[in-house]
Amino acid sequence: MSRHRILRLITWLPAGGIERKILAVLPRLNSDLFELHVCCLRERGPLAEQLETAGIPVHVVRFGRRWDPLALMRLRNLARGLNISLIHAHMYRANTPATVMKMFDKRIVVAAQYHNMDTWDTPWQLRMDRLLAPRRDLNVAVSEAVRRELIERLALPAEKTRTIYNGVDIREFHPVAAAERHALRERMGLPVAARLVIMPARLTRQKNQALVIGCARDILQAAPRTHFLFAGSGGDEQMLRNLAEQCGVSRNVSFLGNRADMPELLSACDVAVLPSTKEGFSNAVIESMACGLPVVASNVGGNSEVIDRGINGYLLDPPPTQPTGSPGGDSFAGPAFQGVNASQFTRFVKRLVTEDDHRAARGAAARIRALDFSLDIMVRRVEQMYMDLLGENGL
Q1: Is 61 exposed, middle or buried (0-12, 13-18, 19+ CB in 10 A)?
Q2: Which domains does the chain have, with CATH numbers?
Q3: What predicted TM-score, i.e. pTM, was given to this entire model?
């Protein structure tokens, strides 16, 4: 049987969560069944070289805008030249031209993947997606919450949708013994005796690091040796540094930037937090849980599909009232900030950093739950999706 040629279409390949997951999955797909190519619509990005080292060619077809006719022609020529059977696109910017490709050539199978809730930046994008989504063979969601939103907002029949959860490499992300955790902290220059609370996320308003900093003072009153780590980069870094100074917690806060050693860094910590205002299905949550960390996260997107309240972590409810004002200062005086109940966050983190047995039990349960979301399971589900779409199972 000849191999099916698959084109993964994406804007570019920065070291972000979606792109890192592509890098993790593609080399593991069955090379006897699939010949894989990646096409970027802006530029290559830092992960392109790693994909090519793994034997997956990366092409670039630059789009000035989503409906750029010359770029669409170049993309069509690339797909024809490679004899592509299936285009698997990611996010609105790539999902749109992928669907146009199907209009050019109805033999091409198109799957469009959605990685977040409320992914449309403008009403125009939503209207266009309502027109395009039914023309695709499949619309793929990273959680059941995202899939339900696709069905409702795009008026899609359920059979035009499928959920494929993000997976984590449970051999790479795993808990470590206390002695190894101590050694990791020493090697990384982290406070050895502290309770380390880590937030692995881009430094953007959506991720809501400001809530963590705003609640830190109350947490430190109960557990003075707590230290907060922010792993990630982004445009909000200086604002967050200033906020830590304003709140008087800068000595207990570290900004680590992007890290290439996330499995070791997570294993060196005690608790993970992710009070985002919006998520589809968080890589950071399942990676933290795989390392044996209980997670305190907002009850948004697919977080409730992996976190069981009080068993392997905690989910944050919406606030009783919406806050006013800008980050910092008096905006933390009330119970709410950025769509998350701040008093709940403070209470949950306090308990996890002060009660060792409670934290250990929830961390052990987190690891067990993460096994249901292994990278191997994700790879098998992607392979099955491709076979189903290409008619190998008569579907």
Answers
A1: buried
A2: 4-166+375-389 (3.40.50.2000), 178-373 (3.40.50.2000)
A3: 0.91
